[in-house]
Write a structure and sequence with these properties.
The complex is a heterodimer. Chain A is an alpha/beta fold. Helices cover about 40% and strands about 25% of the residues of chain A. Chain A is built from nine helices and ten strands. In chain A, β4 and β5 form a beta hairpin. By secondary structure, chain B is mainly α. Chain B has one domain: Orthogonal Bundle (MetI-like fold). A two-stranded antiparallel sheet of chain B has the order 1-2. In chain B, α4 packs across α8, α5 crosses α8 and α11 runs antiparallel to α13. Classes of the chains: A alpha/beta, B mainly alpha.
Amino acid sequence: MSPQNGSQDRAKVVVEFEGVNKWFGDFHVLKDINLRVRERDRVVICGPSGSGKSTLIRCINCLEEHQAGRIVVDGHEIGNDLKSVAAVRKEVGMVFQQFNLFPHLTVLQNCMLGPTKVRGLSNSEARDRAMQYLARVRIPEQADKYPGQLSGGQQQRVAIARSLCMQPRIMLFDEPTSALDPEMIKEVLDVMADLAQSGMTMLVVTHEMGFARTIADEMVFMDAGRIVESASPEQFFTHPESDRSRLFLSQILSH
Amino acid sequence: MASHRKRLRLNWIDCTVFAVLIAATAYVGYRVDSVLEYQWDWSGIRDYLYRWDEDQQRWVANLLMQGLYTTLRLALWGIALAAIVGVAFGIMRTGRRLFPRMLSRAYVELVRNIPPLVFVFIFYFFISSQVMPLLGVEEFVRDATPGTLAWLEVLFGTPNLIPNVISGVLCLAMLEGAYVTEIVRAGIQSVPKTQVEAGFSVGLSRWQLMQHVILPQAVQRVVPPLAGQFITLVKDSSIVSLISVQELTYLAVETAVSTSRIFEVWIIVAFLYFGVCFSCALLFNRIEKHMAVRGQ
């Protein structure tokens, strides 16, 4: 994939949505979504609940399938072709609201599963890599514990490390701090800010507006299945264009 | 839990139940002793467990112990095979493809809705006439070298009865496999869907996901019912006595008839089964505790 009509000096497009529509039965969740994410972009998607934010990013690694339009991720068009699904999932990491660690495996084994089974790394290579990323999310000392023995914040950091061990080109975050106690939110956001600093391409669904403002290159505001507004954070937070985003911001920033 | 353990105290209900139990036991004992005029004679029974072999100058297993060994072999192979059958059909049962799902469903419903005896009779006919010649077991045993034969004897018992034992194992495994299938299905379905998504998000294929994420968690969740089913399998192994597999129940019938020490023989046999099953229960308990500790 080469940039089709973007400015010459910007990086190549790694995620592209073109007129994407999706239904859950009769419910129209995604309506004519057009979105373009370039390498090293940090896109924050916000909006009221039920607006389709999570569904949107879940389409990127094929956890949801779309019914109309085109989604191209890292040069692979997503469709019914199983090979492209496998290729995309290798390159796209995802962090979930409920962490979704594998409870029957230790922290270290959680981080080694993908690299050994999918990337074909040897056990010792995978272990070294896992320890490296566990150090990066600041919990190398928990490597031999089981997820159930960790706090929510620690579990979420392990989940981030687990994704990073696959050395993905794109990271998706689906409300990564929504299930956390307030005092644990910061440790997770710090790790994510670190990651943003390192140049990772990130799509983040979050309600943490302070965090969004500091790390985002682009804010995408969704409502009722549509992208209502997409703008730079300065623009979005100071002069939101639509009434809908103004209302949303006033509600979410008022407390 | 242990710190809150209640002190053992008997109330009047416990005492009544206890008294009734004693009275009932005494009554049965009295009936057997006086009305039936049963002559207890335990003296000869020991020889049916072990007998002194004059030629070899050592104790060798006699009918009842031989039967117990066969039962143990049946149980062991039956459990292994039923587990394989159950996991395979359990995975098919929860799969996306219609045909395997229907096949698995048909198997489960067929076995569950036919009395075990009837199933075993029909299935044995099929095995003895079709499967055994196909496997070539008899030829294999006949042509085996003494070395192989020694191994076979450890694994399956006396060589001339090997086809007999294998038929029993197959019947038992297909019978219990259906119940194991249902347990495995329940286990697989109890693993949250979010685990599937997490597995996919690190790039696992469907098969890898099943193997490394879903199945281990499913099995961990169903250890108690699975243990119960395996113990049932040990007890159900007595069913195959009806197709002349010479296991404990089959040889107990022979012993009881030939010695006419009916009560003595069956009481001993009951104790043998109890010993095996209760040991299994204790073993599974330990496994369960071990897995629970490791899990969380």
